[in-house]
Amino acid sequence: MTANASLPIIEVIFDHAGFGTDGQVWGGEFLISDSTGFHRAAHLQSVPLPAGEKASLQPWHMAYSHLNNADLNLNQLVIPLSPEEKKSFELAFFRDPLPILTSSMGKLFDAVSAILGLCIVSTYEGEALSELENLANLADDDFGSDYEFLIFEKDLGWILDPALVLAQIQQDLYRRVSPASIAKRFHWAVAELVVRVCKKIRDLHELNHVLLGGALFANKLLDRETRERLAKAGFILESDRSESSEQQISLKQLTVMTTIKSKGLETHL
Question: Residue 133 is part of a domain; what is its CATH number?
Fold first, then answer.
């Protein structure tokens, strides 16, 4: 179903990376958008993006950044560097006074893949995401409850903090829960996060139409579970994506990109 393009909708954009209006790297966004522009209602907690674009082929970079930001144990993370190289990396990471920050959900998927030891170094962007989805598909449905993102109010919006999710993943690894179950619980947690945030936006702004966009929703497991949970919560899903239209871009996403570009910022959303 497609709403009147002039009416505002909730747009969920989960992607790998794209510059936002604040000059930082976006990709985990909840926007209220219409034909004239958009408002950023919520986003994933921003963390440093080590080595910039090189992080796209080094998922362990994002694992290091997310675990450090959550003040969690880094000792179990596989770091494919010599002791000297590791020291240089850490010096650069902690001494950068103005790091590039990212709110990318794709980078969080990279981080979880590396934490599980699944994809430490990738050969192409999106490999860690693909391997995490494949692993999750191996899990039984009876694998325990969802992990839970923390949600904080900030500046008339919400920050979505994965710290608790990452702590729960580390706890499950310590308990020797199967990596497949962990991967599936993580997917479910992200799907439930979408519903929780959309409910908050609906309660505040009386919006009920939702559009899912961005490369992460090419992940069939995430896309299917998110859509089912949104429908169950009474949301109206806009313009169903066909499975073969991975690169399809909605008119509303084009509006978002046009607005960002008009402010002199490149985007890859």
Answer: 3.30.420.40
User: Would 268 be classed as within a structural domain?
Assistant: no
Domain-embedded: residue 4: no
- SS3 state at 205: helix
Across the range 225-248, mean pLDDT stands at 74
User: pLDDT at position 3, please?
Assistant: 53
Reported as a single tens digit per residue, the pLDDT across 25-82 is: 999 999 999 888 899 999 999 999 987 666 678 999 999 999 999 999 998 899 988 9
The whole-angstrom separation of Cα 266 and Cα 42 is: 21
- pLDDT band of 22, cuts 50, 70, 90: confident
Range of the domain at 229: 9-262
Separation between Cα atoms, residue 89 and residue 110, nearest integer Å: 18
123-129 contacts, C-beta under 8 A, 24 or more apart: 123/57, 124/57, 125/16, 125/56, 125/57, 126/16, 126/215, 128/59, 129/216, 129/219
Q: Tally the residues of the chain.
A: 269
Q: Which of 155, 60, 33 is nearest to 117 (CA)?
A: 60
What is the Cα–Cα distance from 130 to 8, expressed in whole angstroms? 32
